[in-house]
Specification:
The structure is a homodimer.
Chain A (H helix, E strand, L loop, with lengths): L10 H12 L4 E2 L2 H6 L15 E4 L3 H14 L3 E4 L18 E4 L6 E5 L4 E4 L5 H10 L16 H6 L15 E7 L5 E3 L33 E8 L6 E9 L5 H13 L7 E5 H8 L2 H4 L8 H11 L4 E9 L1 H18 L2 E2 L4 E4 L27 E11 L2 H17 L6 E5 L3 E11 L3 H21 L2 E4 L5 H6 L3 H17 L19
Parallel strand pairs in A: 2-4, 3-4
Antiparallel strand pairs in A: 1-2, 5-6, 6-9, 7-8, 7-9, 10-12, 10-13, 10-14, 11-12, 11-16, 15-17, 15-18, 16-17
Chain lengths: ~500, ~500
């Protein structure tokens, strides 16, 4: 879709203005810069290649850059740290847009240990926040995504997830500061009152609640974000579970869902297919030298070698040992009853023991080695539908998805994060981005996944910049009323259409 | 403020149109009707007296009425069941507006027992939902506010609270249907895709999340609402706590906050001052015949007589008995350590025992007898600031509030609902609405409460229609940026300015 949308405006004029605002060293407009800010996992980096980038260090910088962009009619694509790989990385929907790089706005504004929250600027990474929490002796625990080199705020705004209790990151957002396209600085929730100390502690403020509207949208530049963090539990307990057959997914979801709904599992536990875990360990050719789809008998050898099930999950419990030991007995009983085997015993961690074993969110990037699965310069793209935690529907979605992977000759790698009400599927499509064959197959697979999942009644909850319009088009109730509504709001908040045109399929009038 | 805003438009023309749309029997335009839809607790019902009311039974009715209102330039004030007493009841901000009564849209659209949610139309009351759940054997438990004659949806949209685990009602909203001022039917979240079964199970859909924007706003008419309900626990445990002195509030909050943050108390437990509880039992004159403020020694007699502390709270735990028994031991230990006395032992309820003792939310209205405190035709108005769960700040807020009550000669009645991060204060100001003296004192007290609370840095999270502008004005960051933002959105979504002008201080252009 993206080729239809080429950013317009006087980019040179904008960069000249930006040099005046920021100085030469924070304007990146060379060919090398353009490549550096492109999608590093794209088959063709030029498809979404930006015109360059500008790096803000303050709200005032952002305001001035928005003004300059409006005057030059140049589109700005804000990124926090730009690590949203699998969904586009640093790159904009529109080739030719200018990246508004916020990674130098990296102040941890506040950590409130008693009330359990932090306030971060968009450039604060998971490692930065972890370092600060570690310096303080872990008075609060983090939830981190699988690959944690990105921005804490950016990840939450894009609805990233982690395997901890506070793992629905957007759900932890409370109170933000946003610069609107016209330069107005807005503070949401209780922050709409000057110096109100409840800003990051309550969502029950006066009038409409706006926080979630600035998630996955292009209505403003979020320059500060409040995020709830977990109080440290005195103990954690952890159990690995395995299931031997692909069709076991139905019983795996049926087992987790009621435990999660009733608070007996303290996070959305995920069933991960074995190829995913194998891809963290080695390349495909380190396991099997053949071509084509990984055969089931070779898969069985891999599972044997790595001690994996077809599906693998880890259940974590957090709290006083007496409480979580009671929960653990119930989880074990439910697993036994479902005929699901534990891989080992419950592991217990107690305050004062080695923190690395605590099941706190500890940032890492080891998982990114999955992109080497097929060899070559690797890449991945995430297909992420969300559905009710209905075991039968989720199992059907699994079979549908896997069949499409196989039809297009791609090894299936999926995970089902099971909540009490929602199940989020994150399917990783791994590829060698130097292979034209992979390109064709991955693109065809992705388009068919969108189509077939939509036909089954579900939608993606986030997607790669390549497919933002296609996914938006699946939201079809009442002649796409929501897409039209989003665009209406876009036009009033950003009449010049300069902020992230096309993000999540929301387009300003000038590009519609 | 309201007297400045008198609704305009051709009301007779609108009522004629409404008769054609609805039939004669759903248009209420007599003097008796106007009184019936006024604020029954107002000192002067005419201040916000509507021009009448129209009762919709369907989305199509709502659409047609909006069209007719737009043509006649008549303001519509939607109510669900109109029981928002203490905040205005059925009455509109603007005298002369027409009430859009949704109480006949009272279908329970769905109850999903496995996934823990219901879908209701705005006219469904707490009693209706309870009856349906009871008929099914309580597969899910409700959270209900203190006076439960109102609408399930309306209460959630106005951010009502209850003393159960799911007691932050707005936080349980997931997926709604809204009719916009132009008649467009919008479905939020996953419902933006036709027939998506995840509509009421996930907030992680694609693009901006709009649910909370239709809370406490005038941007659309919510015609259907998804609300999460609690799975039934196998057991509950309940403990009453008391504190003898007003200044104990600080330690009472200090005790609850960390337990709540760590999930060891399963709901926002509230400390309620004894006058509140006494007011449910009898009138003030049944305890003491004097005039002026209730003296402390008379208060002591009331506490003695009713077996109350100055502050009183109930802690409820929900779950498997093994889990909650462990939590109960920790709550007891924390109370002991804080020097807070339990009034009796933990009461345990187990599945199969008398449901009325279960600590499920069971609707009732007994609490409304509080309005008889001063005798005469009673009334109450709620002053509801929200603050961080910081014991020192909350204690200061208590002292400030109580001193103002006393200055204006009103018996103090406050409750602090203590969450892990937020503490919501709900202060009830009781009065005899036939007393001109009460009128003057209550109004002066309320205005001073807004002013002094604002000076301390906090704001109300909901307020009476009389004070919506004054409270909105306290949200003063960046020259009231949020108020301006809300109005900007209002103008684009409701350019004719017909939907609930003035609600939460949001005014369309034609009345600004």
């Amino acid at each position: 879709m993206s080729a239809d949308h080429i950013a317009t405006g006087d980019v040179e004029r904008f960069f000249d203005g930006a040099r005046t605002i920021l100085g030469e060293d924070r304007v990146f407009a060379t060919e090398i810069d353009r490549k550096a800010y492109s999608d590093q996992m794209a088959f063709d980096m030029s498809a979404h290649q930006p015109a360059g980038a500008v790096a803000a260090r303050s709200v005032e910088d952002v305001q001035r850059l928005l003004k300059a962009a409006g005057e030059a009619k140049v589109s700005l694509w804000p990124i926090s740290r730009g690590k949203n790989f699998g969904y586009g990385g640093t790159a904009p929907v529109q080739a030719g847009a200018v990246i508004l790089d916020l990674s130098q706005m990296n102040r941890i504004v506040e950590i409130n240990e008693d009330l359990g929250y932090c306030v971060v600027e968009p450039g604060v990474g998971f490692y930065d926040l972890f370092d600060e929490l570690e310096r303080r002796g872990h008075p609060l625990w983090m939830s981190v995504p699988g690959n944690a080199w990105g921005s804490v705020a950016g990840n939450a705004l894009e609805r990233g997830v982690g395997p901890q209790s506070y793992g629905d990151h957007a759900a932890q957002i409370c109170g933000m500061e946003v610069v609107l396209a016209d330069g107005t600085v807005l503070r949401t929730g209780a922050g709409a009152m000057k110096d109100n100390p409840a800003w990051h502690t309550t969502r029950n403020s006066y009038g409409p609640g706006w926080d979630q509207v600035f998630c996955q949208s292009n209505y403003g530049v979020v320059t500060r974000l409040g995020l709830w963090l977990m109080p440290p539990p005195p103990a954690t307990m952890s159990l690995s579970l395995q299931m031997p057959d692909p069709d076991d997914i139905e019983k795996g979801i049926a087992m987790f869902q009621p435990l999660r709904l009733r608070g007996l599992i303290d996070h959305d536990a995920a069933w991960v297919s074995y190829v995913g875990i194998a891809s963290y360990v080695g390349t495909r050719s380190s396991f099997w030298k053949g071509d084509g789809l990984l055969p089931e008998e070779e898969g069985a050898k891999i599972r044997q070698q790595l001690g994996l099930g077809w599906w693998n999950a880890e259940v974590n419990l957090y709290g006083p040992e007496e409480v979580i030991a009671a929960k653990a007995r119930m989880v074990s009983a439910a697993a036994r009853e479902a005929g699901i085997a534990a891989a080992g015993d419950w592991r217990v961690w107690r305050e004062g023991q080695d923190f690395a074993l605590s099941k706190s969110g500890i940032p890492g990037t080891a998982g990114m080695s999955m992109v080497d699965w097929y060899g070559g310069r690797g890449g991945h793209i995430g297909f992420s539908p969300v559905m009710p935690s209905d075991p039968r529907l989720a199992a059907e979605q699994f079979r549908r998805t896997r069949a499409l992977y196989e039809k297009h000759g791609v090894d299936y790698y999926g995970a089902f994060g099971v909540g009490g009400r929602q199940t989020v599927a994150v399917n990783e499509i791994l590829y060698n981005r130097d292979s034209a064959d992979h390109r064709n197959r991955v693109t065809a697979l992705f388009e068919e996944l969108i189509r077939e999942t939509h036909a089954a009644g579900f939608g993606e909850y986030r997607t790669h910049i390549d497919f933002m319009d296609q996914v938006a088009a699946t939201f079809d109730f009442n002649d796409h009323a929501m897409v039209r509504f989003n665009n209406t709001i876009k036009d009033v908040l950003d009449p010049a259409g300069i902020l992230a045109p096309g993000k999540q399929g929301i387009w300003p009038a000038r590009f519609r």
